[in-house]
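FMN-dependent NADH-azoreductase
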Amino acid sequence: MKMIGLTASPRAAGNTNTLVTKMLEDAASKGAETKHLDLAKLDIKPCKGCNYCKTHEECVQKDDFASVIAEIKSADGIIIGSPVYFYDITAQEKLFIDRLYSCVDAQFKSRIPAGKKVAFIYSQNTPNRAAFESNLAKYDQVAGMLGFQNVGKFVSVGDVKANPAEVESAVALERKMFDTL
Ligand SMILES: Cc1cc2nc3c(=O)[nH]c(=O)nc-3n(C[C@H](O)[C@H](O)[C@H](O)COP(=O)(O)O)c2cc1C
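Predicted structure tokens:
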């Protein structure tokens, strides 16, 4: 069983990466193969809107996006993590999500094998964890369009290294996903 984490924070040792690392460590301790891909460090260019992917099976652009998709296709469980920047995900994650357009065909049928599980991690400073719920809900729709089964989300608040309960809640979400794989 394989679980991967995709994170989109420019802060390598920040909250999002800390939580997703702990989640993957927990999955690995139970025997999962794990891999962490840092979208903020990879070379992933913005979607060109050229529609090449509607007449071909893949994106026309040759960068690191294809290797991330290969990892997604070989994974059973996928964690997607982003800080909240101005009430929404980071530009690094949005850019990646736009490129996922190449993973649906002209009829909007997913090219990713069905049945993969996904869980979302968000990190923010606003104490109200539901503050940006309506903005973040659209990424649940993206997951649905790709044929992923959404296990849930956890919104962390503040410095997670100073608050063990934040890490515990993220790991609880990973365990929920792990138990379905
Ligand atoms: C450009 C920028 C915009 C931000 N916008 C918000 C925001 O709208 N709401 C919020 O609660 N926190 C906001 N924050 C705080 C981050 O979401 C928070 O520090 C988060 O934990 C950072 O995650 P990271 O450590 O994984 O990078 C913002 C931070 C930055 C740098």
